[in-house]
Every structure is written in C-alpha cells, then in structure tokens.
Amino acid sequence: MDLISARPPRRYDYVDDGAAIYRASFATIRRETDLAHLPANAERVAVRMVHGSGQTDLAADLLIHDDLVPAARAALNAGAPILTDAHMVASGVTRARLPRGNDVLCLLRDPRVPDIARDFGTTRSAAALALWGDRLAGSVIAIGNAPTALFHLLEMILAGAPRPAAIIGVPVGFIGAAESKDALASFAVEHGIDLPFLTVRGRRGGSAIAASALNALAQERE
C-alpha cells in the first residue's frame, strides 16, 4: 500500500495541535465539572475519568475512598501489579506512566479459565480471578467490564483471599453492574473490611474509565 505523502486540503475548522487539545480538554472539564464532594487528592483521578468518558456529569456518581489515591500510589511505587478483568483495561494503561514498570495482568485468555468457569458455575471473567493467586496481596485491582468479576472478588476476600491495596470497581452494564458497585461501596459497613476503593454508581463504567483512573493513579502529573 502506498503512503499518502501529503496532507489533504483542509476543509474544516478544528484544533489539530495535540498539546493544545489536551490542555483545553482538561480546562473544560474543570470549568464544567463539580468535584467538591470528592477527596482533594482524587481531583486529578476524577478529571481523567471524565476525560475518558466524555461525560462531565460522571463526577456526580463517583465514590472515592479517602485513602484510595495514597494507597494505590504507594502500592504502585512499591512495584505492585495491576490486575484487571479485561484486556481492554490492560491495553488502556499507559506503560510510560507506571512508576516501577509494574506488571499489568489480565488472565481471561488463560486456557484454564473455561474449565474453572464451568466448575465454578460462573462467567469466564469471574473465573479468571482464581488465577491471580498470591499476586492479589497488595495489588491494585481494576474491574471495568464484568459485574460478576467484582462480585467474585468481594466473595474471594470474604472467604479469606489476600487483600489488595486498592480496588477500582467500575463494571458497566444493565445486569448486576449497579448492584456490584453498591456491594463494593458498602463493603466496609456490611463486613467490617475497609478497603480503599473507587466506583461509579449506576450502570455507567467500562474499560476506558477504568484505564483512565489507573493512568491518573500511576502518576500524579496530568
């Protein structure tokens, strides 16, 4: 295939400077978004999540534990892995932002997963969590796709599995998504296990939002 060597004639009026787009985007988000209800240390995380979703009203549905940002950053700075339920989340992480070249793992395609899912009677997304093993301890979890994975993670912790340092729980969907995030938000009250978490109430969520949160946590620089 031949390379197109010249820019086509410009016919639309638009900003095409990448750095200018970036600056203007974040300025627009701060101008149009109410972040007052969030922990001060989570402002940049929230701004990146709004940027990743294109929805300024997302901030109103954000719930962010007071310790989420320091706990996640400390874990990443210590070399903790990021464990995800979806390859799209893993693909969305900007590796250059990771402070220690942290592993970013999604085991959904592991050949053992279908058999585990069948034995457990659950989805493959949930079954893949069984392969996290000892890596779960002190890790940063990002669930952006499957409500069953978030429910399964909470059940694993209640059953005595190692505890992660922080949980980003933002699965998207119409069946179980809102409920799984409610379970995460009420986990400390209902079970006495206070884990730093971030979630988005309701049906909204997804891989882009989860990856945006991870990128903000990986490095404070915007």
Quick structural overview:
This protein has 222 residues and is of the alpha/beta class. 41% of the residues lie in helices and 9% in strands. The protein has one domain: Cobalamin biosynthesis CobH/CbiC, precorrin-8X methylmutase (Rossmann fold).
Task: Give me some keywords for this one.
single chain; alpha/beta; 10 helices; 222 residues; Rossmann fold
Q: What topology emerges from the helices and strands here?
A:
Elements: H1 18-32, H2 43-53, E1 62-64, H3 68-77, E2 82-84, H4 87-92, E3 104-105, H5 113-120, H6 124-127, E4 140-143, H7 147-158, E5 166-169, H8 177-185, H9 187-191, E6 197-200, H10 207-218
Parallel strand pairs: 2-3, 2-4, 4-5, 5-6
Antiparallel strand pairs: 1-6
Helix pairs in contact: 1-2, 2-10, 7-8
Question: How would you characterize the overall build of this protein?
Answer:
It is a single chain. This protein starts with 17 loop residues before the first helix and ends with a helix. It has 222 residues and is α/β, with parallel strands linked by helices. It is 41% helix and 9% strand. Strand 2 (82-84), helix 4 and strand 3 (104-105) form a beta-alpha-beta unit. The chain has a six-stranded mixed β-sheet, with helices on both faces. The protein has helices at 18-32, 43-53, 68-77, 87-92, 113-120, 124-127, 147-158, 177-185, 187-191, 207-218, and strands at 62-64, 82-84, 104-105, 140-143, 166-169, 197-200. It is globular. The protein has ten helices and six strands, in the order H-H-E-H-E-H-E-H-H-E-H-E-H-H-E-H. It has one domain (18-218): Cobalamin biosynthesis CobH/CbiC, precorrin-8X methylmutase (Rossmann fold, 3-Layer(aba) Sandwich).
